[in-house]
Amino acid sequence: MAMVKANAYGHGLLPVATFLQDVVRADWFGVATTEEGVALRRAGITRPILVLGGFWFGQEAAIVHYDLATTLPDPDYLPVLEQAASQAGRTVAVHLEIDTGIGRLGLSPDQFTTVLERLKACPHLRLDGLMTHFASADLPEHADFTRDQIRRHALAVQQARAAGWTPRYIHLANSAGLHAFLPEAAGNLVRLGGLLYGIAGDALSPAFPPPPTQPVLSLHARILGLKTVPPGTPLGYGCTFVTRRPTRVATVPLGYGDGLHRIQSNRGQVIVRGRKVPIIGRVSMDVTMLDVTDVPDVALGNVATFIGSQGETTITAEEYAAVMGSIALEATTALTARVPRCYRAAAMSSAPGGREDTPASACK
User: Fold this and answer.
1) What is the pLDDT of residues 347-364, one digit of tens each?
2) Which residue is catalytic, options 66, 197, 227, 237?
């Protein structure tokens, strides 16, 4: 199951999902909301889609109409979904999430028992899957807790089968679970999120070697303005940076309106002409300033790389996020719709029907 929630973790929902369906041949797609599932269907995605966040009252008709599988965060969603499916003359696939320790939307043991019983009176709902979600599969010190989650999920599967249900899909593993807890957490479906996008450094257990992945996303902006200012010049909102030498200031059109967090102000680094340079002054909504004094031959239009590589110099998404005290997935997901996404599809000769695609848009 390819997780494409939250705009495919910032990478772009529809282009990513289309590539994963047509080239990679993903079996399933995972989204968080009904709206995301509807957007995929309207864009021509035909593979099964699971709405992991369930639906809100009033959205049940969309679940039915767009043939979305869904979780049930509470037994009270059963009758409204059954009614909508009955009225449409359709059957809806339901995946029950069991809360084995994360404490979020999964069903408690009592709720799980209630849903199993009440499902018997819902002929238009099909129990298609049983799932759980790991709380800390990436932390070796919590390995026993994760194993207990696996045990609790297995007991829930036994309970469902004893009650006469035969769910087709059993799934536990996110990227961290797949990396650190095979074969116990294999089930017959895995939900790949960060690992799918080559984000592994801060999302997987350090107790095991990282898989051979490459990051999918890089983040760049071109230098929009250049000026040299004397020592003692305050820069940016709040005058939080004051130059101590004649300083060559480059301004790039990327700010917190694009998802570059203000915490990067006077802390983050960017690559210009193969060299790391500091962000100076406050990151504003639309632009950010860089100190390029030590970069020879810097010019308008030069690329400033916030995430990615220039030559031998790299800033990973994990390093970019660490400046903010965060994780790479939050950093990429925060990138707003204003940032143009340019896609270059790599050769997929090992994938069924693989080919080298023409870029969806040119990155100039």
Assistant:
1) 443 333 333 333 334 455
2) 237
